[in-house]
Design goal:
single chain, 411 residues, alpha/beta, Rossmann fold, 3 domains, 5-stranded parallel beta sheet, 52% helix
């Protein structure tokens, strides 16, 4: 239940005795009585509070009741506040008409009857309380409507988000199933192709050994094409197997010493590095959370590419790493032929080659395998390169010492 608050009634008279008398009479209304001894004090009160009614003496020095009433009506906030003039003039006096012109709603004539003045003010207090009640109810209704609109909007947004999340979950499940099916297909297809390919390769090589130079020139060329095609098919199948086995045969990542892994890989490249006249250097490597075998594959593919795609100068390859909190970023920098930045996003896609097959061997699977391995570990891989100025491949892995920060290379 909305209980009305006490209303303010402003009584203005320059005679202290009159103020005390009016205050005593109006006390029975059980409202808040505020007194003012001049027009100026009346206006100051109106700046601070709202009033149910104003009892305003007409005859006051400096600023009389008419002038004060005019200023009250000039303010937006008090324009409709009821003004009851308090005067000793007769009811037929011209000043009474003048008071109405200045906005008076009623007159109280001296000497006044206490019952009459209380009755008149009670009407305005009741009207004021009803007005305030309507204002509070209207405000609450507006607030409720606003909250209802907010609730409806939130409900609509929630429903949209729920539907979007459900659709995303369905798509994610479909994508996972599709990826799993593709992985299984790639593994089975490449695995089952090996046996017939070995037979084809064996017989083609047998033809090459037995009949090379014994038939015409075209026959020798045809046999060479068949041998080359069989070898490329074997490379392709091996690459597909490696790509499909990243998830299927990957071991659970655990703390691994990347320097030990790197040294093991460099031994594999010993003769290739020596034959090229190149050199591979590295800074101290951190401990990370990784599958050691797959980390070795990443190092092997990146260093192998640096040797394969070298420029006329002997290859110079540097491996570095920096750890920042929970992540370690490895960098493999070379002085090779480089890659045009516009093709940087393509090099990690399966079967993407930027060079003719005769220029550089391979099926375009090595970097795709690297990307798949790194992402399996929750990391990322990217490239910084410029044609004829070399390339730097970066990849990140979780650190086995999350609270430690180290840096072996400013790059």
């Amino acid at each position: 239940m909305d209980v009305p608050q006490k209303a303010n009634i402003l009584v203005v008279d320059d005679e202290p005795g009159n103020l005390l008398a009016l205050e005593s009479v109006l006390k029975e209304l059980d409202q808040t009585i505020v007194t003012a001894g001049s027009g100026q004090e009346c206006l100051r009160h109106l700046l601070e509070d709202d009033f149910a009614a104003i009892v305003l003496d007409v005859q006051m020095p400096v600023m009389d009741g008419y002038e004060t009433a005019g200023l009250i009506r000039a303010r937006e906030r008090s324009r409709t506040t009821p003004i009851l003039f308090l005067t000793a003039h007769s009811k037929d006096d011209a000043d009474v008409r003048r008071g109405y012109e200045f906005g008076a709603v009623d007159y109280i004539f001296k000497p006044f009857d206490p019952g009459i003045i209380r009755a008149k003010l009670s009407v305005f207090v009741e009207l004021y309380n009803k007005t305030q009640l309507i204002k509070r109810q209207t405000k609450r209704m507006i607030e409720m409507e606003h909250r209802q609109r907010e609730y409806e909007l939130e409900a609509a947004l929630y429903e949209q988000e729920r539907k979007a999340a459900k659709a995303l979950a369905i798509k994610s499940e479909e994508l996972e199933r599709s990826n799993a099916d593709l992985e299984q297909f790639a593994y089975i297809a490449s695995h089952d192709l090996q046996e017939p390919l070995r037979m084809v390769s064996s017989y083609v090589e047998l033809l090459a050994r037995r009949y090379r130079g014994k038939l015409d020139k075209d026959a020798d060329e045809f046999i060479a094409f068949a041998v080359d095609g069989a070898n490329r098919m074997k490379e392709l199948i091996d690459g597909l197997l490696a790509f499909s086995r990243v998830e299927a045969q990957g071991r659970k990542p655990e703390p691994a010493d990347s320097e030990t892994v790197l040294r093991r890989v460099l031994k594999v490249f010993g003769s290739a590095i020596e034959d090229s006249g190149g050199a591979v250097t590295h800074d101290p490597m951190p401990s990370v959370i990784a599958d050691e075998v797959q980390l070795g594959q990443v190092f092997q593919n990146l260093i192998g590419n640096a040797i394969k795609f070298r420029s006329e100068a002997p290859p110079r390859i540097h491996v570095s790493a920096r750890c920042d909190g929970a992540e370690c970023v490895f960098s493999v920098r070379d002085n090779g032929i480089g890659i045009d930045p516009q093709y940087a996003h393509k090099v990690f896609q399966i079967f993407q080659r930027l060079h003719a097959r005769g220029e550089h061997p391979g099926q375009g699977l090595g970097l795709a395998v690297c990307k798949r391995i790194v992402e399996r570990h929750g990391g990322r891989i990217w490239l910084g390169s410029e044609p004829h100025k070399g390339s730097t491949f970066h990849f990140s892995l979780p650190s086995s010492n999350p609270g430690r920060t180290s840096e072996s290379d400013p790059e």
